[in-house]
């Protein structure tokens, strides 16, 4: 058997640039869409929950199908890369439209427009993101190579997560009318969203699918691939780590601006707080890659998640005390976020490889589709639950970002939800990770077994 060689660095970089679209969409939307609905359009929190749930459920159900289509796509450009090319411009346009809802319309019209725009953005982004993630798992099949590919992708993810977390508020705050500022922000962000998939497209030809000797590849169909993916135990373990991680991060993204504005009363410092979190997340990427290389991905994930959980619990302490140590807590959150970004994305390819070897298939798209499907279902449920609880606790929605004093029940809900919900899923992820044999020695043993077979 020929020894597997890693790909050249420039290809990893070009592939990583493609993450910019994904990151800007799924940083700006989770961080600001609900805030845009409740504090700019004046939509009640309960209805904002409906928007979130409807859009994400629609988005989620398309993910496995997008994975299947990218597995079975037959094109001279490859089976993944055509999606990078064809989705770029429509994605960007849908993003701009979603934050350009006319404020003068009735509540019913605003709800219909935002749901349609949101669903359009999500389904277009799905047909980019699922093939993109599958492509990243395939271009470098080596154990440490995949960590390196993930690290480059996460470099651009966190760098533009920093952009997506800080620049939007600067743009809309500089506008005379906040709603117009949101529209300007969205169309500015749409430019890199349209361009970055082209870098992934030109990162090189796709690797040919390798079918092991004496192994008959199963005929595929959408429903067969879906059933096969959800039944595989190894895949389910890697899937759980990934889904739990991103559900926890989604809660942080959704509630951070509410926590800073209404609990800490530090809204003017929001951009700085977000900037420190994402800036340190970038700075510590090499550190977590080093930890992974020195020990393994599993330990790196557990240590990073544990640090994040301990720091997160401090946010539930009395508000005056949190304000006094906020500039200690914020950097620690950033260090934890760094591990939670890169490690799950590096672990999942190993789980998918085992599933493919066990099921005698050659396509990772269906597994990726199931992964993003369940991630979005979990995020949709959490987002809807959070907004529903805020509405039930009396959260007051406003138009054009007018500041109002929120009732004590809403303040308490923001604080507890920000801590308790991520804590549950991160602890669950650490438990699964501790029981999942995915270390370097496990990978070597499996490779030896496959070679002898």
UniProtKB/TrEMBL annotation:
InterPro entries for the chain: MFS_2, MFS_trans_sf
Biological processes annotated in GO: carbohydrate transport
GO CC terms, sorted: plasma membrane
Residue intervals passing through the bilayer: 20-37, 43-62, 83-101, 107-133, 154-172, 184-204, 239-260, 272-291, 300-318, 324-343, 380-398, 410-434
Keywords assigned by UniProt, alphabetized: Membrane, Transmembrane, Transmembrane helix
Matching CDD domains: MFS_MelB_like
Family matches, as PANTHER family: MAJOR FACILITATOR SUPERFAMILY (MFS) PROFILE DOMAIN-CONTAINING PROTEIN (PTHR11328:SF24), MAJOR FACILITATOR SUPERFAMILY DOMAIN-CONTAINING PROTEIN (PTHR11328)
UniProt-recorded name of the protein: MFS transporter
């Amino acid at each position: 058997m020929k020894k597997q060689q890693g790909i050249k660095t420039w290809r990893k970089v070009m592939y990583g640039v493609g993450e910019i679209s994904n990151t800007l969409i799924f940083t700006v939307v989770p961080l600001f869409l609900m805030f845009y609905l409740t504090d700019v359009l004046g939509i009640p929190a309960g209805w904002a929950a409906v928007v979130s749930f409807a859009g994400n459920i629609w988005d989620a159900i398309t993910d496995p199908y997008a994975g299947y289509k990218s597995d079975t796509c037959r094109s001279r450009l490859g089976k993944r890369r055509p999606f990078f090319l064809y989705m770029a411009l429509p994605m960007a346009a849908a993003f701009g439209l979603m934050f350009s809802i006319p404020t003068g319309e009735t509540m019913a019209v605003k709800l219909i427009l935002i749901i349609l725009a949101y669903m359009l953005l999500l389904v277009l982004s799905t047909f980019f993101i699922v093939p993109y993630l599958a492509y990243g798992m395939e271009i470098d099949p080596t154990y440490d190579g995949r960590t390196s590919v993930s690290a480059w992708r996460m470099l651009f993810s966190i760098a533009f997560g920093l952009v997506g977390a800080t620049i939007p508020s600067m743009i809309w705050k500089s506008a005379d009318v906040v709603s117009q500022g949101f529209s300007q922000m969205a169309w500015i962000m749409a430019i890199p969203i349209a361009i970055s998939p082209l870098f992934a497209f030109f990162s090189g030809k796709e690797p040919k699918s390798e079918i092991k000797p004496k192994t008959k590849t199963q005929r595929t169909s959408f429903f067969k691939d879906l059933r096969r993916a959800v039944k595989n135990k190894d895949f389910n373990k890697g899937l759980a780590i990934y889904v739990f991680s991103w559900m926890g991060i989604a809660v942080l993204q959704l509630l951070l601006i509410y926590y800073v504005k209404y609990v800490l009363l530090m809204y003017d410092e929001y951009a700085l707080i977000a900037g420190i979190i994402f800036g340190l997340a970038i700075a510590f990427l090499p550190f977590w890659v080093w930890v992974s290389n020195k020990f393994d991905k599993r330990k790196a994930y557990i240590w990073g998640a544990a640090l994040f959980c301990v720091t997160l619990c401090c946010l539930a302490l009395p508000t005056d005390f949190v304000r006094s140590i906020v500039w200690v807590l914020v950097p620690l959150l950033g260090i934890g976020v760094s591990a939670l970004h890169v490690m799950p994305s590096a672990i999942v390819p190993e789980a998918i490889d085992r599933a493919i070897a066990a099921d005698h298939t050659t396509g990772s798209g269906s597994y990726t589709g199931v992964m993003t499907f369940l991630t979005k279902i979990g995020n949709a449920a959490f987002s809807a639950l959070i907004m529903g609880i805020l509405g039930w606790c009396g959260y007051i929605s406003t138009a054009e970002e007018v500041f109002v004093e929120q009732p004590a029940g809403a303040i308490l809900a923001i604080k507890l939800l920000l801590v308790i919900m991520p804590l549950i899923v991160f602890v669950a992820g650490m438990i699964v990770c501790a029981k999942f044999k995915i270390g370097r020695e496990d990978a070597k043993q499996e490779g030896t077994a496959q070679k002898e077979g």
